[in-house]
Amino acid sequence: MGEVILEMKNIIKDFPGVRALDEVNFEARSGELLALVGENGAGKSTLMKVLSGVWPYPTYEGDIHIRGELKQFRNTKDAEASRVAIIYQELNLIPELTVAENIFLDRQFTNAFGVVNWSKLYSETQKLLDELNITDFKPTDKVIELTVGKQQMVEIAKALSKNAEILVFDEPTSALTDKEVEALFEIIRKLKQQGVCMSYISHKMEELQQIADRMIVLRDGKTIGEVTPMSEITLDQIISRMVGRDIKDMFPKKEFQQGEKVLEVKHFEVDHPVLAGEKQVKDASFYAAKGEILGIAGLMGSGRTELVTGIFGAFPKDARGEVYLEGKKLDSKSPQEAIHHGIGLVTEDRKAMGLVLGQSILQNMTISSLETVANRWGVINKAQERQIADGYVEQLNIKTPGLSVAIDTLSGGNQQKVIVAKWLNTMPKVLILDEPTRGIDVGAKVEIYNLLNKLVEDGVTVIMISSELPEVMGMSDRILVMCEGEIAAELTREEATKELIMEYATGSKRKGV
Amino acid sequence: MSNEVKSATAPGVLQNENIQMALKFLKENGTLVALLILVIFFSFADEAFFTARNLTNLARQTTIVGIIAVGMTLVILINGIDLSVGSIVGLSAITVTLLMQAGVNIWLAVLLTILLTGVVIGLWNGFWVAHYNIPPFIITLGMMTIARGLALTLSGGGSVPVTNPTFSKIGGNFIPPGISSVIIIAALALFFFALFRGIQQKKKYEIEVNKQEIISSSVIAVLGLGLSLYVFTAYRGIPYPVAIFVVIAFIGIFVLENTKFGRRVYAMGGNEEAARLSGINVYRMKLSIYAVITALSALAGILLASRLNGASPNLGTMFELDAISAVIIGGTSFAGGIGTISGTVIGAFIIGILNNGMSLLGVPTFYQLMIKGFIIIAAVWFDVLSKKKKA
To answer: Which residue, of A410, A427, A444, is where some domain finishes?
Structure first.
């Protein structure tokens, strides 16, 4: 095991009204990957911001030691100079520039007149890529043409080009395909051999078991327990450290009497919005019945989101096919028609497509169902509106100081509950949830699962898209697996296994073969 | 022991709370405070300022841009902009006067003008914005030139006189002081009635009543209506355009605050994609909002032609800038989703007072332009600053 590179001692960071970090202690060593685990809001990102100088000294208390030397970063440049680099969830690349230009953005090779030496720029970049065994793209490729996974590798190369010795990954795999994740891990393993000290923030336990050497749990701004080798701790133990209690039943699935078909989709197709002739969804037919949760699994880009968004009427020009609701044919040319018929959609990207950030919880909650609180002249009865909203806050256990506060101030899980409340108030017959638990901490996930049970019990047909196989297997009655725009398989709860789903999702196994 | 500590800290905390409450009030009503400071300043600087006659004129001058600014608030709230409003004022003034010259009945002429130069052009602007996603800046910039050119073409470049005395009354007449005072007192009564009903409704649904809010809004209403009572009874009464402006502003405030339409406007401004996926017909909303602002601009043009007893094709030049300034000074965010029409009304009056007061003091027009410019920048700076503090 390597020497201790980074030590953080008694770190305290206060925000108005909250203590985000409360005497955090840990140390990280060279050549290892230390997993930083915790629920959303536990303080992981704040801790990393302290480390990288985003929250400068002395806005926090406590000491940061690197190789035994006390460091007090006044800004991010200071941290960089001490060879600390962070790869954020949101990538910081300039899309229109090349890989090489991005990597050496602030340190272009120039001559005495400030003219860029392009050949040196490209050759230095190539050297860097060779070191990392990256062959998927060239220094001259534009970043905009790379997939998210490859862009992340550009970020890593950029960090290493600055001789980073301490590398922090903040949920790096949330937007990567499995293949890209594997490539990332390959690079991480290589970096371990080179003695880089890495810290890795993630929700995905399976990944951590593959890649992490040791782990530390943060809860409510405190470190819980000691840094523990991955091999000496079980998943259940990690989760109980995270939430402070044992979660015996991660997936509280309840089964109900199956009813008649509520939603039936036949020969549904969605054209690619840009590429002519390409289809994102090809000839999809399926149904969802009363009393069930229909899961949709598949890799990113397999057409899951496009299928449900199309059914919801959001692509009037690109989508076609037959949609029946309770036997009646719908022809939804817009989301508002779909909502009128009784279909709701909790979108995948909460911030960009679900919430109206900057506006109140109340406004977000009733925006899809204003007719329930307005008279026939369109005048809203505000008192009645508040009463309805209060009801949902109580029913869904939404933790908020009030209805008038901006939705931005809530945690991810509570934001998601507000969105669910928004759809509940439209009285849906079918509620589609696209990745409903992404970026939500474990405790809130379980609450969402309980909520899904409650919905089914109340007679709502639920369709849930998920990339997390345990979730889709744990909560669904039936599972559709999508692959390259087609529904590759329909599996019952009993026959579904991880291996089977992955075989269909990756296209290595096909329907009827 | 604990009692001692309590009594020792209580006064300090209380004081702190009072200061914080005052700061909060300042932040939320910064533009109103700025307006008051301007009024006090000009009152002391020139005794001709705080007279019923001058304030009546000031109100009448402000209303034209004010009416446009109400519409501009809606457009900026949904992340748009309309640069064509000034040219629409000129076009509508020419159109309505030409129609009357051709012998069309005045009310028909007014109606046709609002429809043709207001609603139709607004729908055209909205269509390009909604259907092809063309930036509204570009579309309305084009329409700004087109409408001005059309006004020049129709009028042959010259002015069109008004001969109809009834038409002149729309922009020039007053509601007599007696009736004015009755209206203002009725408005005050209506305000307290609405306040009372609001409280009752909140109690019915067991919602906490914010006393501080009630007190501050009551004070503002009493002061504002008291001032108007003085101004409009001591001189010739309420000018017709002012009455029209007040009605439009109140409809605007009510619609934004209390209707489905208003909620949708805010949602669209905050996140258009989320609004669309929440079932809002974004297309139709855009069409109607762009139609509303040009219709209001056409109305402003008619009022202006009536007050001036004639139209010139160059009427309304630069009005778009005054209207946008009023909206921005009034605290509406240029990024959309945040802002109120009451703020815009205050903003319009700040610009009106600056114009009026600086002219009274004999500040040369060239300097006036620069001062106005700096005030707009200061308003936006204040907006950015207060947002930073929140984050």
So the answer is: A427
